[in-house]
Structure formats: structure tokens, C-alpha cells
Amino acid sequence: MLLDTPKADSSNELGEDTWELFELIEKSFGVTLDYATLLGSSIRDIAELIARQATKPPSEKCLTAAVFYLLRREFVSGLAVPKASIRPNASLTSLLPWRKRRDRWLLLEKHLQLELPALRMPAWLFLSTLLLSVGAGFLFWETAWKNLLWVGIVTISAWIALLRLFVPLGRAFPNGCETVGDLVRLTLARNYAELSVRFGGASPGLITELLMQLIAAEIGTDPDEITPETRVPQGLNIY
């Protein structure tokens, strides 16, 4: 339990990644967290804390089903996707082809009036921009000025410019978001505070599942590597 979790020194462990993760959890679930106390807590512990702060009674309907019907309605009415194609196990790749994915993703978010996770840059493209930037720095070293400071400046500047240039190509789905069912759970996780007002709250068990999905997408890790007993931030390899 949270009260039994050894407190950590926040000045040593509460890094930027952990800070941003806790802020996202607060925003998504509409709660207030004591960051220093939570350091070293498991995801299950955090879920139980969120459940204790709940102001809405438990939902009388299945929350994931309610969000599924919301998404299905917008896929059909907003994106003209055949209703029969929208099933929990349907691949998002087939429903949102790469060429029009970014525009349709933003349109879906606008019609839902909910926050969807950002599409991300594929790992191969991200690494390509890094390698090109290093190449630019090496070229500067060979042809212009053998000064490590300026080579570093050129490399970092080139990387920033390339990342901005290739942002439109960042159309990969968030980690752990491959099917309609995945999108349903991730949408519920990111908008839990608002959706619980509409439909009611969730059990600690469901909140734990939503937290795992949210964290995997946020830090870009494989959802299978996160369990209810994973501790934050140590078990996530973030600081």
C-alpha cells in the first residue's frame, strides 16, 4: 500500500520525465498527487489512490463500451468509415491509412472533443534524423572548422531543423495503440476525468489497466513490459 512505501528523496529521483508523467496522470484523472510520496509506489498503488479521490459514483455501465460507441459514432459520421468495420479488434492501420492519417486523427479528436494521444515519429525516422545530424557535424569538422564546440552546435541545430522538417511524417500510432480497442482504452485513460463525469467512475482494477496503457504510450515502451506492480519511476527506466 502507499503508506507502506518507503519515501524517496524527491530531489534525487524526481526527474523531468517523472514530473511530466505525474502531471499527465493528474490531468487525465482529475486528481492531485503528492509526487514525493508517490516515488517508488507501484502502478496499482497509484490507481488505488486515484480511486480514493474519485468524486463520481461507480458507473452502472461498462466505461470501455461507452467510449467504444462514442468512437464508433465519430468514425462513421465524421470519417465515413463503414460501421461494420469498426470492431474492438479492428486494426487502426486499416481504418486510418498512412497518407490521410494525421488529418483524420485531428478530425476525430475535434469531433470527439476529447484529447487523443499524439501520433509519434517512427523509431527508424527518428534515428535517421540523428544520423544525418551527426553527419552534418562531421562534415563541418572536415571542411570548415575543427572545433568541438561548434561541431556540437552544428549537430544539435541540424537535428532540431530535421525534426521540425519531418514532423509531418510522424504518423505512427502511440505504443500499445494498434487496434480500436486499444484506442478506446487510451482515450478513456487520457480523458478519464471528463468521461467519468458523463458515465461514472471506474473500479481500481480498471483504473490500473488504464494507467498502464497511458504510461506505455507516454514513455514509448512496450505495454507488455509494464505490470500493476511496476514501480514509478524505477521500473519504467525514467527519472
Structural commentary:
With about 240 residues, the protein is mainly α. The longest helix is centred in the middle third of the chain and has 21 residues, at about 125-145. It has twelve helices and no strands. The protein is flat. It has a domain at about 125-170. Helix 4 crosses helix 12 and helix 8 (about 125-145) packs antiparallel against helix 9.
Write the layout of secondary structure elements.
Layout: H1 10-13, H2 16-29, H3 35-38, H4 43-52, H5 63-79, H6 92-95, H7 101-112, H8 123-143, H9 148-166, H10 180-190, H11 192-199, H12 204-219
Please supply descriptive tags for the structure shown above:
single chain; flat; 239 residues
Radius of gyration: 21 Å
Number of helices: 12
How much strand content do the residues show? under 5%
Low-confidence stretches: 1-12
Helical fraction equals 55-70%
How many beta strands in the DSSP annotation?
A: 0
- Specify the overall morphology: flat
Cα separation of the termini: 22 Å
- How would you characterize the largest beta sheet? none
**Mean pLDDT rating:** 88
Helix vs. strand class: mainly alpha
Helix-strand sequence: HHHHHHHHHHHH
The gist of it:
With 239 residues, the chain is mostly helical. Helices cover 59% and strands 0% of the residues. The chain has a domain at 123-169.
